[in-house]
Amino acid sequence: MFENLSERLERSFKILKGEGKITEINVAETLKDVRRALLDADVNYKVAKSFTDSVKQKAMGMNVLTAVKPSQLMVKIVHDELAELMGGKAVELTLENRPAIVLMSGLQGSGKTTFSGKLANMLKNKQHKNPLLVACDVYRPAAIQQLHVVGESVGVPVYSEPDNKNVVEIANNAIREAKAKNYNVVIIDTAGRLAVDEEMMNEIATLKEAVNPDETLFVVDAMTGQDAVNTAKEFNDRLDFDGVVLTKLDGDTRGGAALSIRTVVTKPIKFVGTGEKMEAIDVFHPDRMADRILGMGDIVSLVERAQEQFDEKQAKELEKKIRKNKFDFNDFMSQIQQIKKMGNIKDLAAMIPGVGKAIKDVDIDDNAFKGVEAIIQSMTPKERANPDIINQSRRQRIAKGSGSKIEDVNRLLKQFEQTRKVMKMMTGGNSSKMMQMANA
Ligand code: GDP
After folding, report:
1. Which of 141, 178, 215, 434 is paired with 357 by a 20 to 30 Å CA distance?
2. Would you place residue 309 in the very low, low, confident or very high pLDDT band (cuts 50, 70, 90)?
3. Phi/psi at 388 (nearest 5 deg)?
4. How many CB atoms lie within 10 A of CB 180?
5. Which CATH number fits domain 311-439: 3.40.190.10, 1.10.260.30, 3.40.50.200, 2.40.160.120?
6. Distance from the CA of 274 to the center of ligand 1, in angstroms?
7. Each residue of 374-385: b (16+ CB within 10 Å) or e?
């Protein structure tokens, strides 16, 4: 699922690769691409527009002085917006009444019967409920039979009255039976039509009124894209349902319905169906889905960690020092500490797409900085603050003290000097570049 969208979004972010900072221009370009990707994923155009507007606003308002690259920051902003677009937090079923009543609604073929079985199975196994399935699709004898087959496969009893066409009566009888036999959840499967029609809407609305369900769920085939969203709107206008079940997400590589439905009907997606088997049901978690869409969940956590650890005040101080060419080994050391705080270096590096595989067999570990740290620690405070005084004899002393070779000390000093030069160049009068450079 979402493969196309994932690929497209990844390409959009590439526009920002190599950019030093987020500007009006490069954001606009990226977002144009993001919007196109969303439209191609069959996302409603109004939803796509408000999505990119909101991402733009966040990106422009974001302090540039952060320990991450603009392209990574953009991934994070888009990720959070995607999660928000899909509802933010997961919303569970409220099943408090005894018995709790769940009413299914949706078009024929959307997957109501299958989902009824999946839900019963999940409630039984994961929440130790004692569910009863009820067949209220009275128009097609095959439908009643299908529910019996599904019920049998998950070991949940099915209530049906094959000769009765009055769905309200059947539902009420089932609820009475549930009370008598201590079933605590009643799942009512209903009839759908191939398209929205008045008769079907009336029937389901009447049924809803009669049984007063704890949860009315609208089941819809994700593969129908924009149609799914339109149908959701029609059902919601009439039924004011509580949640959406998106089925056949396994077959939907575009994902437009998942992304648009919440905005259009302002009701949460509660479950997704990802296959024909009874186990193929997932509680819908917007943030996890956003991870999946971007296929870059790792970058998102990298940015989060960096944002948690990064000290803006310290960075500003540092920048001042660099501009005055006062960057010294104390600062260098604290930079190393900051990077180390962000976690295992190999883990961090592996989070960058494309890098993970490349460094699989390379030996980078948290000890990577050990040699450097030892050398700096062997410097006197005076030397750390004034690296320029470190002459040949001091170098020899430092090498000895840190247990390293004189070449290592020389190399570090040379690197330090180069870094200092580049830093100075990059900050020359212009603010907020320091960390981008450090990350370049
Ligand atoms: P109903 O008419 O709304 O009750 O729909 P059904 O439950 O009979 O489902 C219609 C078809 O979709 C059946 O062939 C199901 O096996 C299939 N189906 C239902 N949910 C899913 C799903 O999540 N993934 C896939 N691939 N197929 C599904």
Report:
1. 434
2. low
3. -65, -25
4. 8
5. 1.10.260.30
6. 10
7. ebbebbeeebbe
* Nearest partner of 293 among 120, 91, 63, 38, judged by Cα: 38
- For the chain, give the mean pLDDT: 84
**Token pair of 269, please?**
């997606």
Q: Please state the atom number of ligand 1 nearest to the C-alpha of residue 107.
A: 3
> Which DSSP string do the residues of 82-138 spell out, in sequence order?
HHHHTTSS-------SSSEEEEEE--TTSSHHHHHHHHHHHHHHHH---EEEEEE--
> Could you tell which of 114, 116, 189, 245 is best to mutate to test the pocket of ligand 1, judged by most ligand atoms within 8 Å of the CB?
114
Give the CATH architecture of domain 3-89.
Up-down Bundle (1.20)
**Which residue puts its alpha carbon closest to atom 2 of ligand 1?**
109
The maximal CA–CA distance of the chain, rounded, in angstroms, is 102
CATH 3.40.50.300 domain span(s) along the chain: 100-284
Residues 77 and 62 sit within 8 Å (Cβ to Cβ)? yes
| pLDDT of 209 | 97
Determine which helix (DSSP H) or strand (DSSP E) holds 186, and give its type and residue range: strand 185-190
Nearest atom (ligand 1) to Cα of 274: 23
CATH number of 100-284: 3.40.50.300
DSSP summary character for residue 344: -
Secondary structure class of 255 (helix, strand, coil): coil
ipTM here: 0.99
Q: Which residue has the tokens 């299908």?
A: 146
Contact in structure between 244 and 232 (CB atoms under 8 Å): yes
Contact 175, 211 (CB under 8 A): yes
Which region, left, alpha or beta, applies to residue 161 given φ > 0 means left and ψ of -120 to 50 means alpha? beta
193 is in an annotated binding site: yes
**192 marked among binding-site residues:** yes
pLDDT of 302 reads 64
Residue range(s) occupied by CATH 1.20.120.140 in the chain:
3-89
- Say how far residue 258 (Cα) sits from the centre of its chain: 13
User: Which protein residue's CA is at the shortest distance from atom 20 of ligand 1?
Assistant: 111
